[in-house]
Amino acid sequence: MTPDWLGAFLIGLIGAGHCMGMCGGIASMLTIGQTQPSKLTPLFYNFGRLTSYAVFGGLVGGAVASISEVSELNNALTWLRLGAALFMIFLALYIGRWWQGLLYIEKLGQSIWKWISPAGKSLLPLKSPIHAIPFGFVWGWLPCGLVYSTLTWSAVSGSTLNGALIMVAFGLGTLPAMLLMAFGATYLHKLQQSQIFRNFGASILLTYGLYTGYGALSLLAISW
Which branch of life, at top level (predicted)? Predict the structure, then answer.
């Protein structure tokens, strides 16, 4: 396990309260037209969601690595890693509720989402629990500052595989909260909303972001 995988997992785990707020309505959408909803439906939905994250990460990681290799810009990934560190800092400030600037970045994706969301809605009502997989894949594209922040780490991962694994690690971090929400548990949501928990998690992410940013700046200083 690399530090970036661990960082991505922590983003998902600590920021899952945001995911629960954004995706809370989806749980009810999954049961539309079903008199006896299957307990497998949330599992299939989240499998589709994590698959979409892996695809995002793989595409971004592979594309940036290829461009960097072809262009022979030795400092390109270092600059991008500095940008990823800044996103981590923004995310920490957002989770701690110290600064909400990440929401402006999140809004940038809404113009694209309006073209994607009809594909997900066309799958409703779900004909069977397994149809929740493509539904979850589409809804994985829902504009989310946490996803965008983690994608910046995929961009500097250096390969398609690493980019995909970073996003999978993020998805696994969100999984406990999303599954518990789907099965009606509320105590974890209360924990996620605790200011003590948020401050603790935000402090960890802020420290990691500053550490990564310092490392990137040190490499750039050497190259200069």
Answer: Bacteria
pLDDT digits 0-9 by tens, 161-211:
999 999 999 999 988 878 877 665 555 556 666 778 788 888 988 998 899
Question: What residue ranges do the domains of the chain occupy?
Answer: 3-223
How far is the C-alpha of 84 from the C-alpha of 41, rounded, in Å? 34
Residue 216: which residues within 8 A CB-CB, separation 6 or more?
A: 78, 79, 81, 82, 85
Q: Count CB atoms within 10 A of the CB of residue 150.
A: 31
**pLDDT digits 0-9 by tens, 96-130:** 889 888 777 777 777 777 788 788 778 878 888 89
Q: Which residues contact 204 (CB under 8 A, 6 or more apart)?
A: 10, 14, 92
